[in-house]
Amino acid sequence: MKNKQKIIILITGVVCGIIIAGLFVFIFPASKNEGVEQELGTTQAASKNKKEISNLKLQLQGAEDALQNAKTGKNNQNVSDLETLAQSLFKVYYNYDQSKTTNSERQKEVSDWVIPEVSQKLFPLSADKGTSDYGTIQSQLNSLQVYAQPQAGTNITAFIDCDYTASAGDLKSNVPHYIFEVTYDVSARKITAVTELGKVGK
To answer: Which whole-number Å values give the CA distances from 144 to 121, 167, 178, 190, in the listed order?
Structure first.
């Protein structure tokens, strides 16, 4: 009887051992596979996030570049507008024949390009009554260079380098590198100040 009980206990132990071993084999591989799947999912999510962040950075950089280009283009356009106005203004100033035009007419001609204070300074009406002992005063602009400085607020300052020829009767003189400083208001789109600096060099 005792031997029979021992055999039953032994068989029961073996069966339990087989069952437990089977459970280990079933549970742990499944757990391992689940961990691999979770790790793979995490890696894929991280990769996707990195790609999205990279794309976002590219978009932001593109927007910043576009904004910078727009600003640069706008500044270049402002400088171009200043150069056009300066060319027009100093052509009126230097291409002059006292016998054919008056400063009153010249003031009206430049009124869209400069503020009144500038036109009155460059073309004083009192000069219309003046005469020269040497004859009629004439002048001609030969060349002009505009050297614009970086824009500050709504203003651009530039140096205007003029080469002109002046004559009175039989007297004639060529004057190179006569310099003016001008201020251009990009909002008003007008020259708001002109300062005569004089001749540079001989």
So the answer is: 20, 19, 10, 19
